[in-house]
Amino acid sequence: MSPKTADEIAAAADATIHEVGYDRNGFDSRIDTKTLRSLYLAPAFIKAGAETTNVGSASKDYGTESVYDKDSNKIQYTTFAKFPPVRLLPDAQRKRILVTGGAGFVGSHLVDRLMLLGHEVTVLDNFFTGSRTTVSHWVGHPNFEMVRHDVVEPFMIEVDQIYHLACPASPPHYQYNAVKTIKTSFMGTLNMLGLAKRTKARFLITSTSEVYGDPEEHPQREDYWGHVNCIGPRACYDEGKRVAETLTYGYMRQDGVDVRVARIFNTFGPRMNPYDGRVVSNFIIQALKGEDMTVYGDGQQTRSFQYIHDLVDGLILLMNGEETRPVNIGSSHEFTIMEFAEAVRDIVEEVQKAEGVPNPKRVGIIYNDIPTDDPQRRRADTTRAKETLDWQPRWMVRDGVREMVLYYKQMIDQGKL
């Protein structure tokens, strides 16, 4: 049996979900998954010597051609000017949207969706943790603009909606410069709320499940006040997001700013920084490289994982809905870290076999000390999201992990990992 391409493997696994988004209340945000997949899963051609491998049929239309020479360890890029087709909206429906942190993991997927829906999108990013490459396929499009800017400084633009995502979100990144992290949470949110007040734009801030700390209530409802160590190594992020929420509701009550607050739980998917220290990316890369997977603690601590497309669905529904209270956006299905590690190991082996590896190496699992203040249990109570947004996750974790495995394998094949 001949090896399968990444597109063929993903298509075989995609038996149930063929589109993302919703059509309700006069707002249609539906996009087919094949179009989205072409933007992250098959963006390149690899040419090594005389052998050419087409990594995806949609690549030449929507991505970048890369020629990688293993001998010299150099890569040559050729970009294509043809963009994915975007929806043609009437002026009354097309919005001017600002996405801070739009070159990051979550931001880039949100930008893809907003662009495909036909809106005018401006990305604001200082590239501290984000990367231009995540949205480079939109550079040059008449509806797209990317600005290098740090949100701790004011920014002036006329907009209808602001998605405020800018802030380091992985422990190694936000602990690397704790002062910068809390400054971004406070000053960045202050500046963006000021912009929303001036332009009368609707403002959505992406908060986090970390505002609940190491919770004593399980699962966590939005009215739970949390159990946070305010001076611990994670406090710069946890407390930064808590004060950002306080600012947001201060502007709503005092100045009438139209606000939305999304509390995001563990999310994974393509474009996650492979070196950001998160459990999903760590497991997948270690397994793909044939290295033992590292579990911190005994592996019995729990997390609820949602796929990136479900999160973006939730953010867009929240922005365009009427709910102004905080809303948990996450999965209610709980895994132990050990269960998740074993699932990743199985899926990596499945992908390797499908691509022609006869007997993939079965990696082991090693244990390290658990980090300080790492929560033991984390699961969203999504009742409010279901009742007010009619939203709940649709992607199975295994399907999402499979796409992420294909994405990282592609990076390894290109010499990027």
UniProtKB/TrEMBL annotation:
<keyword id="KW-0472">Membrane</keyword>
<keyword id="KW-0963">Cytoplasm</keyword>
<feature type="region of interest" description="Disordered">
    <location>
        <begin position="365"/>
        <end position="385"/>
    </location>
</feature>
<dbReference type="GO" id="GO:0048040">
    <property type="term" value="F:UDP-glucuronate decarboxylase activity"/>
</dbReference>
<dbReference type="GO" id="GO:0070403">
    <property type="term" value="F:NAD+ binding"/>
</dbReference>
<dbReference type="Pfam" id="PF16363">
    <property type="entry name" value="GDP_Man_Dehyd"/>
</dbReference>
<dbReference type="InterPro" id="IPR044516">
    <property type="entry name" value="UXS-like"/>
</dbReference>
<dbReference type="GO" id="GO:0032580">
    <property type="term" value="C:Golgi cisterna membrane"/>
</dbReference>
<keyword id="KW-0210">Decarboxylase</keyword>
<feature type="domain" description="NAD(P)-binding">
    <location>
        <begin position="98"/>
        <end position="404"/>
    </location>
</feature>
<keyword id="KW-0333">Golgi apparatus</keyword>
<comment type="similarity">
    <text>Belongs to the NAD(P)-dependent epimerase/dehydratase family. UDP-glucuronic acid decarboxylase subfamily.</text>
</comment>
<comment type="pathway">
    <text>Nucleotide-sugar biosynthesis; UDP-alpha-D-xylose biosynthesis; UDP-alpha-D-xylose from UDP-alpha-D-glucuronate: step 1/1.</text>
</comment>
<protein>
    <recommendedName>
        <fullName>UDP-glucuronate decarboxylase</fullName>
        <ecNumber>4.1.1.35</ecNumber>
    </recommendedName>
</protein>
<keyword id="KW-0456">Lyase</keyword>
<keyword id="KW-1133">Transmembrane helix</keyword>
<keyword id="KW-0812">Transmembrane</keyword>
<keyword id="KW-0520">NAD</keyword>
<dbReference type="GO" id="GO:0033320">
    <property type="term" value="P:UDP-D-xylose biosynthetic process"/>
</dbReference>
<keyword id="KW-0735">Signal-anchor</keyword>
<dbReference type="InterPro" id="IPR016040">
    <property type="entry name" value="NAD(P)-bd_dom"/>
</dbReference>
<dbReference type="InterPro" id="IPR036291">
    <property type="entry name" value="NAD(P)-bd_dom_sf"/>
</dbReference>
<dbReference type="GO" id="GO:0042732">
    <property type="term" value="P:D-xylose metabolic process"/>
</dbReference>
<feature type="compositionally biased region" description="Basic and acidic residues">
    <location>
        <begin position="374"/>
        <end position="385"/>
    </location>
</feature>
